[in-house]
Amino acid sequence: MALKTLTTTRVLLDGELVEPAAHGTRTLINPATGASAETVPECDTTDVERAVAAAKRAFEDGRWSGIGPGARAAALYKLADVLEQNLDELAVMESRNVGKPIKLAHDSDLPFAIDCLRFFAGAARTLDGRASQEYVPGYTSMIRREPIGVCGQLAPWNYPLMMAIWKIGPALAGGNTVVLKPAPETPLTTLALGELALEAGLPAGVLNVVAGGDDVGKALVAHPDVRLISLTGASETGIAVARAAAGTLKRVHMELGGKAPFIVFADADIEAAAHGAIVGGFVNTGQDCTAATRIYVERSAYDAFLKRLLELVGQIRVGDPSLPSTDMGPLVSAAQLQRVSSLVNAVKGTATFQTGGERARVPGFESGYFFQPTVITNVPESSPVVTDEIFGPVIVVLPFDDEADAVQRANAVRYGLAGSVWTSNVQRAMRMSGALQFGTVWVNDHLPLSPEMPHGGFKQSGFGKDMSLYALDDYTQIKHVMLDTTGDQRKGWHYTIFGDAE
Asked: Do 128 and 98 meet the contact criterion of CB atoms below 8 Å apart?
């Protein structure tokens, strides 16, 4: 069956698919070939103004927040169904645009995104205020949970559609309206989302999609009518966005960088841990904030673990992302290839490269942005490959002596997004999960998430939660309503401000 051709040449503004005001365009690069690919729209600040104005009107006239949670839930369920009906085409787009293996896009990212949207459709009907009572005699207090308003959302390039859904799901479920901007490198599926939102019947202005670079993002962050900015990106970007958002005191919701520790104790299942390290370290070519990039192994198990890990690394199939057999595709861009190469080259001569460390040359894709799966040992703990987010297929494997040593080294970085512990000792697993300063800690696995559970970081990995009812907390605000129950025209306490006591 031929795939439907989804719209990627226009943006969604106020319920219409339109060209940007200045008719700007950007030519994308296929990361697998390094050659020019699709031409997509490029917005400017005029389009941001129009998008925010549309979202503001849609919020203020109640066409979304005022229809009630049941109707919002139905609309989000319809959008999830439409996404599912177009999953094949969206997966091909995502694979081609990002360079990720088609099996990752088709069988993991997109089904999970659709499931998340369905979770938030149901969660829309759980919004409530806490039941209250007469805390002050003669008055009943109630709590209302209300939407914030216009939400500006900046999605990343590594999981374009999935992260877009993580953002619009709780925002729309909570009754907000949205202006969504994909990363300039990977806008295809988000642009297609605009067409599918119309097909699903979302009211005009409720969801707006703008495409473009830094100027578009900065205009969205600084706009006084945007009441919340959500960003998934690098920690450095988060710092810049927080500073800009401070000018209008808007809320910020951020899922930022990570440097996940992967801690293997000698009593762990070494075979399971080695497989977990492959999956955790090389997922999406290592372009994942939760990627297992720092592998710490108890010294007595170090050699056995490293030997098995290297055997498995040698089996990773690097190549054409459109093939179902490919395990690892290219990095997303020439700039990302340069970044990874630079960080790796900085430790050549001082560290031991067990495998990899170079650009990969894939037959037929010689100009693609491929990098070899890389395992580094004997590297100083202060090296940037240990302390900084690489966002590439590079892992370091280091020994540790005991539990305290593992905790200290795992927590020594500025990030706090995710980590994992591998052990057969349940008491140790509980101690470690409490001691590690990360928003998600897995035990005997690495990577799986659930829409019902929150995902978000500590320290410079950001604040706020994606997924779960905690995300709905972030996208709503609390109002206290205090109701007089006496009907008295003059209250007993009024004399303290006006008149005499009776």
From this structure: no
